[in-house]
Amino acid sequence: xxxxxxxxxxxxxxxxxxxxxxxxxxxxxxxxxxxxxxxxxxxxxxxxxxxxxxxxxxxxxxxxxxxxxxxxxxxxxxxxxxxxxxxxxxxxxxxxxxxxxxxxxxxxxxxxxxxxxxxxxxxxxxxxxxxxxxxxxxxxxxxxxxxxxxxxxxxxxxxxxxxxxxxxxx
Length: 170
Known about the structure:
Blueprint: H1 2-5, E1 13-16, H2 28-44, E2 48-50, E3 73-77, H3 84-92, E4 97-104, H4 111-114, E5 118-123, H5 159-169
Parallel strand pairs: 1-2, 1-3, 3-4, 4-5
């Protein structure tokens, strides 16, 4: 990532995901994937910012406030690479190298996917081999381990696949 942009100027990354959209969501997996990608960028010495939804972090940087001209790269991480909000990232940050990492690709021909310069999916149709989720490599937090169950209604874009997976587990 750094090498392809060196000649064009300094590298600064904007980390985004479904947690960045006003009507998006943040899951434990999203938070852990964000921690993992942030740790990798820290290790490489690459500066970055995180865009949060005002609904989750009112005091944080929001997509609407992110200065488009200071970022060399936009990374969309975790969750489905699908829908209008993901498509809008391409229009909002046209000069950035846009990368999707650790995402589920539902339709590889959808504008939400084709707008990325690089897509490193965790799963996709058409024989793409699933990879380990980014959340699995997140740095451990200090403190006592905690176990919890979070129940949600599920993501609309993956609801049919989730229902089939539950049926197969019977």
